[in-house]
């Protein structure tokens, strides 16, 4: 993994009590339980499979 991604992950773990990655369940982030906007979902859907994406509400990395 890129060094900058690992550093970002570590920062998120500290910020969110150890849970830096959440699953995208439909339009909802399982970390903050908020739905992504329509534009945000479109951005996530169009992102390359190997690109790390974040919840637009809480900033956690999303597993999709």
Name a few traits of the molecule.
34% helix; 19% strand; alpha+beta; 64 residues; 2 helices; globular; four-stranded mixed beta sheet; single chain
- Name the helicity range: 25-40%
Annotation field: number of helices: 2
Strand order of the largest sheet: 2-1-4-3
Taking Cα atoms only, what radius of gyration do you get, to the nearest Å? 11 Å
The tally of beta strands, per DSSP, is 4
Q: CA-to-CA gap between the ends? A: 18 Å
What do these coordinates show?
- With 64 residues, the chain is an alpha+beta fold.
- The chain is 34% helix and 19% strand.
- It is built from two helices and four strands, in the order αββαββ.
- It has helices at 3-15, 38-46, and strands spanning 21-25, 28-29, 53-54, 61-63.
- Strands 2-1-4-3 form a four-stranded mixed β-sheet.
- The longest helix has 13 residues, at 3-15.
- It is globular, with a radius of gyration of 11 Å.
Structural topology:
Blueprint (H helix, E strand, L loop, with lengths): L2 H13 L5 E5 L2 E2 L8 H9 L6 E2 L6 E3 L1
Parallel strand pairs: 1-4
Antiparallel strand pairs: 1-2, 3-4
In short:
The chain is α+β, with helices and mostly antiparallel strands. It has 2 helices and 4 strands; from the N terminus they run H-E-E-H-E-E.
């Amino acid at each position: 993994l890129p060094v900058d991604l690992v550093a970002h992950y570590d920062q998120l773990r500290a910020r969110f009590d150890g849970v830096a990655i959440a699953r995208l369940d439909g339009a909802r982030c399982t970390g903050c339980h908020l739905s992504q906007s329509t534009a945000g979902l479109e951005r996530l859907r169009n992102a390359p499979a190997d690109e790390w994406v974040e919840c637009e509400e809480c900033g956690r990395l999303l597993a999709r």
